[in-house]
Every structure is written in structure tokens, then in C-alpha cells.
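TL;DR need C-alpha cells for one chain.
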Amino acid sequence: AASSYGGERTEAGPARWFIDDNPVGNGFDPWVDNPGPGRHRVRLEVSEGELTGVTSSEIAVAKPTGETDPA
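>> reply
TL;DR here they are.
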């Protein structure tokens, strides 16, 4: 959930998710494909009228156990 500048609850429609600057989903509970092993930047943008709030974080996705690098 998110709240507007005025404190009211914001609907999920204007919520947009990005991984490494690529759009991957909308709303507050999207299901996205695994971006693969390594470091990735996740960004959420929520808009209301002409205002947009943005937050981002870096995540690290580990290789599955037993997976090796290609030779």
C-alpha cells in the first residue's frame, strides 16, 4: 500500500516496477521473472496526478546450488 501526499491511500494502478531500468510489472504485488544471478537495481514509481514518488534498491540474486559457470 502507498499513501498520497495528502495522506490518503493510493490505488495500485499507478505503481510501476523496473529491474535494471526495464519495466517488469504494475501494481503493488506483481509477479516478475527472475532477472538471473548477479546484482540488479529494483525501482518502484508511484504516481498521483502530476506527482511521482520513486524509490530504488540494489538486490543480489544468487546462482542456484549446483549451477556452474559455462566454460
